[in-house]
Amino acid sequence: MANIFITNYVIEGEKKELDALYETMKKLQGQNLGQMVESLGKNPDEVMCRGEWADLERQGDTLRMTFETAWTPCYEVTNLLKVTYPSLRIYYKAEEPGCEVYLKNDAEGKYFPETEADGHPFDLMTEESEQEQIRLIRAIKEGKIKLEPV
Predict the structure, then answer these.
(1) What region does 19 belong to: left with phi over 0, alpha with psi -120 to 50, or beta?
(2) pTM of the model
């Protein structure tokens, strides 16, 4: 069974792009992330998109939602969103409490101010570290890396 990540997103960008993404997601509400990937013109079998979203909300100049995904936050989906809607800036914090993994990319704490100093052990992710996680998960899925049972 996969470890489940709960990832909270806040997305900024041009109003027309936020509105377009919001309308797409609202229309697909209740579907899985693969449906969204397909609606954005990509094959879900080629994008790591195992999961779903909830709590979709257009709030001021932002779009907010929560993804529930397997193994890792859905970096490939958010990368696809940035390609499709170039003005987007996507902030997140992700938690997998079972393995005590806490990640975020909001270095300034604009939306997710939690820090280790106040008891929140979030590791700061960069685009480079996200890409490394994508490579690692793909290698595991393809059998290039074998995991030992614990």
Answers:
(1) alpha
(2) 0.90
